[in-house]
């Protein structure tokens, strides 16, 4: 048995797909210390630079005193401490709809799909959605139909053919896609969802904090917030904390409280974490300068790499550099590491076969001169002997 497990690991190694943990010894702004060396961290989702700058410690000490460290139980038992209500009220005020906190984005996506959909239902999903959404679809037991990335004509074809066969239907997308940094036409998606009586579920994990006048996401930026039926956001990325939220109409929220297993059967978040999430949310809403800064840096890096710099898509702080073969992505990543940049290779199954890449993600606290240095190294790598 042991040997068989080792063989499986060796097979991953042979394919260049074995993953290994790396220890971060310290953090300072967008820098991380690994094996004694400071590296510019291009692999974090800390778009506003908040996660390295914790909120007021005195408030946290008070909360620790009042609620202790662990919540001790699931929310439906005795884990629903007062900080949850505060955070959900703030979200409801901002989004204009009830909110429900989950313990992470992964758990929120499992819960939304498995709580909303069952065997009689159908989920129409973009092919490149995040693993947590794919797992949620599987867990739901619903039929699922996946359309080619961003191809809304193909989606409409599937809706025409299959919508009538199911009770409830969901159209599922990310707003900003985590590995590609692109986004769908949300307005056209909302029209399809109305026309085919499907609920529009949008995962805004990578857009909350970066887009929208109040940081609420791409739906806010594009003026379609009220047409999204279920919006998922996470506190672990731009908001610099941990946990996640869903905003949806009251009946959907109630159904999730009753049906979402990843909500019901897990210990509630510690009060200090929920307080951190609330602080992150408030900071993000007010962070006009940082939002502008990270979007400007995104365009700056794209320009330095010779990539298109037109439109909103050039302001997404996720810059994919697609290198193809796994080993090529690994070797470019290793060379960047030697030069002082942490940009791990992203390989299948996280991305489709043959599209291994570096996913460069930016933070408002980075400096232009560091990004210029990065672009110089990358240009060499892309045009060098390995290209
Ligand atoms: C699109 C998307 N949704 C959800 C998640 C999960 O969020 P969390 O890290 O809060 O579990 C991620 C993060 O990896 C993501 O990229």
Give the count of structural domains: 2
Q: Estimate the global geometry from the Cα principal axes.
A: globular
- In CATH, the architecture of the largest domain is 3-Layer(aba) Sandwich
Mean pLDDT: 95
Terminus-to-terminus distance: 41 Å
What is the strand and helix layout of this fold?
Layout: H1 2-14, E1 26-28, E2 31-34, E3 37-41, H2 57-67, H3 75-79, H4 82-95, E4 99-102, H5 105-116, E5 122-126, H6 131-140, E6 143-147, H7 152-162, E7 169-174, H8 186-195, E8 199-203, H9 218-221, E9 230-234, E10 244-248, H10 250-259, H11 261-264, H12 271-286, H13 288-304, E11 318-324, H14 326-338, E12 341-342, E13 345-346, E14 356-361, H15 368-383
Parallel strand pairs: 3-12, 5-6, 5-7, 7-8, 8-9
Antiparallel strand pairs: 1-2, 2-3, 4-10, 9-10, 11-14, 13-14
Characterization of the model:
This protein has 387 residues and is an alpha/beta fold. The chain folds into two domains: 23-48 and 288-383, Aspartate Aminotransferase, domain 1 (Alpha-Beta Complex); 57-286, Aspartate Aminotransferase, domain 2 (3-Layer(aba) Sandwich). Helix content is 43%, strand content 17%. The protein is built from 15 helices and 14 strands. It has helices at 2-14, 57-67, 75-79, 82-95, 105-116, 131-140, 152-162, 186-195, 218-221, 250-259, 261-264, 271-286, 288-304, 326-338, 368-383; strands at residues 26-28, 31-34, 37-41, 99-102, 122-126, 143-147, 169-174, 199-203, 230-234, 244-248, 318-324, 341-342, 345-346, 356-361. Strands 4-10-9-8-7-5-6 form a seven-stranded mixed beta sheet, with helices on both faces. The chain has a four-stranded mixed beta sheet with strand order 1-2-3-12. Strands 11-14-13 form a three-stranded antiparallel beta sheet. Strand 1 (26-28) and strand 2 (31-34) form a beta hairpin. Helix 2 (57-67) packs antiparallel against helix 12, helix 5 (105-116) packs parallel to helix 6 (131-140) and helix 13 packs parallel to helix 15 (368-383). The protein is globular. The mean pLDDT is 95. Bound molecules: pyridoxal-5'-phosphate. Pyridoxal-5'-phosphate is lined by residues 104-106, 109, 130, 132, 174, 178, 203, 205-206, 234, 236, 244. Pathway: Cofactor biosynthesis; biotin biosynthesis. Pfam families: Aminotran_1_2 (PF00155). Belongs to the class-II pyridoxal-phosphate-dependent aminotransferase family. BioF subfamily.
């Amino acid at each position: 048995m042991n040997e068989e497990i080792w063989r499986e690991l060796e097979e991953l190694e042979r394919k260049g797909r074995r993953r290994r943990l790396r220890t971060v010894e310290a953090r300072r702004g967008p820098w991380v210390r690994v094996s004694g060396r400071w590296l510019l961290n291009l692999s974090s989702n800390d778009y506003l630079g908040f996660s390295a700058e914790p909120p007021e410690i005195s408030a946290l000490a008070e909360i620790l005193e009042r609620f202790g460290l662990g919540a001790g139980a699931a929310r439906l038992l005795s884990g629903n401490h007062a900080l949850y209500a505060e955070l959900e009220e703030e979200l409801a005020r901002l989004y204009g709809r009830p909110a429900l906190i989950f313990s992470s984005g992964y758990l929120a996506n499992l819960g939304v799909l498995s709580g909303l959909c069952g065997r009689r239902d159908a989920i129409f999903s973009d092919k490149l959605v995040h693993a947590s959404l794919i797992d949620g679809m599987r867990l739901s037991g619903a039929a699922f139909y996946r359309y080619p990335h961003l191809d809304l004509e193909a989606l409409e074809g599937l809706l025409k053919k299959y919508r009538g066969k199911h009770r409830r239907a969901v159209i599922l997308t990310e707003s900003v896609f985590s590995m590609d940094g692109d986004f769908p036409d949300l307005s056209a998606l909302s029209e399809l969802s109305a026309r085919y009586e499907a609920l529009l579920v949008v995962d805004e994990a990578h857009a909350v904090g970066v887009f929208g006048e109040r940081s609420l996401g791409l739906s806010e930026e594009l003026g379609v917030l009220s047409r999204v039926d279920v919006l998922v956001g996470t506190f672990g990325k731009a908001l610099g904390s941990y946990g996640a939220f869903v905003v949806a109409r009251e009946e959907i929220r109630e159904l999730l409280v009753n049906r979402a297993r990843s909500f019901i059967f897990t210990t509630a978040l510690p009060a200090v974490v929920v307080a951190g999430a609330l602080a992150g949310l408030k900071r993000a809403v007010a962070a006009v300068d940082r939002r502008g800064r990270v979007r400007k840096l995104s365009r700056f890096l794209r320009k330095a790499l010779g990539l298109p710099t037109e439109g909103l898509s050039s302001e997404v702080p996720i810059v994919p550099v697609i290198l193809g073969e796994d080993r090529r992505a690994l070797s470019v990543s290793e060379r960047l590491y030697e030069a002082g940049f942490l940009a791990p290779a992203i390989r299948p199954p996280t991305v489709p076969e043959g599209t291994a890449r570096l996913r460069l993600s930016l933070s408002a606290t980075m400096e232009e001169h560091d990004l210029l240095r990065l672009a110089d190294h990358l240009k060499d790598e892309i045009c060098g002997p390995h290209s």
